[in-house]
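Design request, tokens follow.
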């Protein structure tokens, strides 16, 4: 037998093996009957420190106290919105309370387990064109250091040293370097983020701040900071953002154990009880135009990251849990085999994105391009065939419930409960979603697929190289240089 003939026969043998259906009965089985019917409903008591609400929770924390300050995002200019990821990263890395950044870093390390800051934008249930918007400063410390932790969080917000220009320039350079090295590591996530960019205000924010547009903005800013005037303007802009946040309505979250919670509350009271908490006069807002896009983003890569997105519904809609199950069913039943095993990609699948009100197909480190989009479209045909069975749907249901029921630490569960309440994800809403997942049938999946997977309003995005991007122009893609 010639070497060529041997390769052909091996390929045919592989194709035959990939087409075989394995017998699942030889393994122990978990069924829908094993799924807990109810879910925990933690309630966090709310106290008042002056005019500031404080949600508290007592649980086992191994002698740690967790403290978070949550502020409503004020109205921000387009430039201030663009700078928010850098503000988040720089706030806890510069000096504060009259110390320079080296002294502050040393003090942080001596009395806390670390401080962090982030902005959080989440879609509103029943109002996909609106969003919840907050800025959050978080920290943890040993119970005995509750007072320095509370003081440090306040100093970080009110007395950050944005006059340390050299430090700011170094931090932006570090962030730029980290971004350059992380693009292909999260290529599929970035492509998915870009594909849904126009679906909801939250999706637009994520794309502009953390997606391809955010990467472009940080790269451009890093170049301009070589000029002293631009660096000074950058520092002034960060200071302006901080001033707006200091005037925003605030609330706090405090979690500790039986011994630590009362003293942590006393420490928080000493810092914040005299603080006025005025109502916001100008609210943060965003807009998404819902226009489908077809983009090829160019970077240095030998493989491709493909995404195909369809507009869908918010998490409180009756179809939302069915879409979550649909993603798992298509991934397990068709996409894994078609895109990874046969197509040669490192991975591929589909998922429901409640924040973007979208259903998204994706591939990861993919040697193919248009052929992968063909497989995305063939997934719906597979769902309509006899190969899609209730057994495969039940398997997908278990996948979704497993992700929903992933356990966390006691403090982590308390934090999750707090933010679920903050964002309107009540126990009733979550139970309805859970029951919607568990009750899903194969016929319901076929119905929602026909309802939402329409080519007329789909968006396509691929992260690829320059050569492939040129080929995609003929297929309606707009080229963007990253």
């Amino acid at each position: 037998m010639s070497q060529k003939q041997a390769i052909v026969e091996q390929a045919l043998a592989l194709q035959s093996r990939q087409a075989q259906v394995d017998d699942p009965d030889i393994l122990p089985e978990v069924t829908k009957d094993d799924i807990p019917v109810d879910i925990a409903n933690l309630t966090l008591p709310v106290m008042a420190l002056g005019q500031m609400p404080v949600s508290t929770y007592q649980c086992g924390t191994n002698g740690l106290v967790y403290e978070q300050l949550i502020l409503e995002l004020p109205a921000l200019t387009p430039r201030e919105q663009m700078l928010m990821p850098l503000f988040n990263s720089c706030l806890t890395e510069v000096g504060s309370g009259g110390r320079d950044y080296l002294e502050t870093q040393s003090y942080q390390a001596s009395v806390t387990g670390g401080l962090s800051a982030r902005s959080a934008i989440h879609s509103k249930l029943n109002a996909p064109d609106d969003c919840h918007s907050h800025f959050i400063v978080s920290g943890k410390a040993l119970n005995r250091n509750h007072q320095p932790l509370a003081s440090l969080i306040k100093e970080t917000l009110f007395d950050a040293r944005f006059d340390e220009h050299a430090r700011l320039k170094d931090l932006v350079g570090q962030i730029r370097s980290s971004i350059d090295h992380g693009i292909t590591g999260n290529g599929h996530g970035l492509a998915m983020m870009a594909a849904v960019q126009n679906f909801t205000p939250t999706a637009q924010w994520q794309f502009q701040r953390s997606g391809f547009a955010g990467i472009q903005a940080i790269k451009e800013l890093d170049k301009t900071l070589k000029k002293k005037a631009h660096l000074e303007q950058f520092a002034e802009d960060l200071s302006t953002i901080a001033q707006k946040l200091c005037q925003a309505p605030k609330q706090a979250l405090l979690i500790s154990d039986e011994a630590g919670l009362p003293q942590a509350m006393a420490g928080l009271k000493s810092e914040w009880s005299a603080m006025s908490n005025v109502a916001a006069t100008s609210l943060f807002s965003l807009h998404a135009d819902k226009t489908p896009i077809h983009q090829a983003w160019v970077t240095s890569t030998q493989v491709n990251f493909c995404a195909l997105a369809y507009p869908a519904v918010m998490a409180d809609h009756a179809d939302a849990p069915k879409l979550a199950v649909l993603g798992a069913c298509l991934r397990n039943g068709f996409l894994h085999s078609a895109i990874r095993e046969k197509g040669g990609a490192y991975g591929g699948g589909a998922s429901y994105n409640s924040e973007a009100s979208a259903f998204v197909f994706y591939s990861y480190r993919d040697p193919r391009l248009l052929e992968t989009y063909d497989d995305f479209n063939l997934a719906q045909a597979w769902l309509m065939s006899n190969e899609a069975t209730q057994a495969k749907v039940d398997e997908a249901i278990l996948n979704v419930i497993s992700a929903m029921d992933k356990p966390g630490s006691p403090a982590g569960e308390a934090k999750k409960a707090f933010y679920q309440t903050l964002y309107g994800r009540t126990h009733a809403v979550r139970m309805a979603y859970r029951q919607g997942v568990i009750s899903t049938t194969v016929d319901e999946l076929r119905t929602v697929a026909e309802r939402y997977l329409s080519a007329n309003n789909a968006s396509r995005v691929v992260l690829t190289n320059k050569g492939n991007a040129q080929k995609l122009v003929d297929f309606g893609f707009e080229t963007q240089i990253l």
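Comment from the thread starter after seeing the answer: thanks! The domain at 46-272 is CATH 3.30.830.10 (Cytochrome Bc1 Complex; Chain A, domain 1).
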